[in-house]
């Protein structure tokens, strides 16, 4: 598959251990459920080119360990992320209660303009649910987050979650709210756009046909 893309966005996947972060990433990239997922040691990486409103966007995704003992390592990956998936497990109130801490880390350590999607995972385990959709939805609203429930097992809403985050970033670039050229924006131009910008810089459009000077 061609690796040609217009933008590259750096994404983080954060949240408590066992929430299903690695399984979500695996489902997104491989289109299948990761059997026997072990705890992530430090950070893992994946990437995929997606179509966002007709534009090819490469998502460079860093899947971080949820375990406390890796916190100092994972924190060093937050810088310069354009988007984040903040994951909890709908069958574990403990992972939901930890969201505020994860959110504080994301907002202080990553780019201040980071786009965050709250993800309630394990939607397939309805009978074991401990956190209602309404409750999490309210939390998302209060904290200006987008919100979706997913199942890494069935694949429900997994791709939609990444696309939702990418779409929001792209909209902000197009409206001028996000500047891809700002250091640490977590956004890079792909080859075609980079060439165009370089050319514009080399050949500034100074001569105007209607100009008498
Ligand atoms: N039923 C169900 N189980 C899931 C789902 N997603 C993950 N799991 C299970 O939850 C457990 C933890 O999943 P992981 O993806 O390893 O969790 P993690 O958030 O990456 O954990 P850390 O790497 O320790 O931070 C595994 O046993 C998975 O099989 C899901 O959507 N549904």
UniProtKB/TrEMBL annotation:
It catalyses: GTP + H2O = GDP + phosphate + H(+). GO terms for molecular function: G protein activity; GTP binding; metal ion binding. One of its GO terms (cellular component) is early endosome. Keywords: Endosome, GTP-binding, Hydrolase, Lipoprotein, Magnesium, Membrane, Metal-binding, Methylation, Nucleotide-binding, Prenylation, Protein transport, Transport. Its cofactor is Mg(2+). The keyword Glycoprotein does not apply. It is found in: Early endosome; Endosome membrane. Its main location: other. GO terms for biological process: protein transport; Rab protein signal transduction. Its EC number is 3.6.5.2. SMART domains: ARF, RAB, RAN, RAS, RHO. Belongs to the small GTPase superfamily. Rab family. PANTHER family: DRAB11-RELATED. This is small monomeric GTPase. It comes from Biomphalaria pfeifferi (Bloodfluke planorb). The lineage of its organism: Eukaryota, Metazoa, Spiralia, Lophotrochozoa, Mollusca.
